[in-house]
Write a structure and sequence with these properties.
The complex is a heterodimer. By secondary structure, chain A is an all-beta fold. Chain A is about 0% helix and about 50% strand. In chain A, strand 5 (about 45-50) and strand 6 form a beta hairpin. Classes of the chains: A mainly beta, B mainly beta.
Chain lengths: ~110, ~110
């Protein structure tokens, strides 16, 4: 079955540590997106990519980095420059006409 | 800058009652999307509205879009407990040939037995 797989489901980060969240899709979508959700809040766009080897900053890109070396994969790195990374991270892919498909999410906690 | 606002933010309603959630957005867009999120879970697509006057219905939920008023509504008919969730609308922000969704703040719905 086609879909988006995010891993890990839970992730704990120590102060000053970089961590990478995985997002893989087998839907053959060109566009992929990373959103951050804080408790009781809406979703805010971190980065997005419309095509392989190209990506753009969203509204809250500071402290994050991404790569898009393969169509299927769009990993997100939360760097030590992100001072408040505790949140629920959602990856999505798709064409806006059909609505995005979302992964199951990664819950990141600073310890 | 595109802004998307939903109201109410919280909604507690009795089973069997009707209610409407509103989604207003600030700039021109012909496309609007509704999603459902259960606690601790991901987002599930409910409706894709692609033109002015679009109306879609699924079970007890009906969504409509008025692009001239920059308004979408999600109407709940005869609510049941299973509809308890957070509902988000999202609007396409188009610029420089790229598309990205801007989400509303969400409406947390609780249906009481």
């Amino acid at each position: 079955d086609g879909g988006i797989t995010q891993s890990p489901k839970y992730l704990f980060r120590k102060e000053g540590q970089n961590v990478t969240l995985s997002c893989e899709q087998n839907l053959n979508h060109d566009a992929m997106y990373w959103y951050r959700q804080d408790p009781g809040q809406g979703l805010r766009l971190i980065y997005y990519s419309q095509i392989v080897n190209d990506f753009q900053k969203g509204d809250i890109a500071e402290g994050y980095s991404v790569s898009r070396e393969k169509k299927e994969s769009f990993p997100l790195t939360v760097t030590s420059a992100q001072k408040n990374p505790t949140a629920f991270y959602l990856c999505a892919s798709g064409y806006s006409h059909y609505g995005y498909t979302f992964g199951s999410g990664t819950r990141l906690t600073v310890v | 800058e595109l802004k998307v606002e939903q109201n109410p933010l919280f909604l507690s309603m009795q089973e069997g009652k009707n209610y409407t959630i509103y989604c207003n957005y600030s700039t021109t867009s012909d496309r609007l999307y509704w999603y459902r999120q259960d606690p601790g879970k991901s987002l599930e697509s409910l409706f894709v509205l692609l033109s002015n006057g679009a109306v879609k219905q699924e079970g007890r939920l009906m969504a409509s879009l008025d692009t001239k008023a920059r308004l979408s509504t999600l109407h709940i008919t005869a609510a049941v407990h299973d509809l308890s969730a957070t509902y988000f609308c999202a609007v396409d922000q188009v610029g420089s040939g790229t598309y990205k969704y801007i989400f509303g703040t969400g409406t947390r719905l609780k249906v009481l037995a």
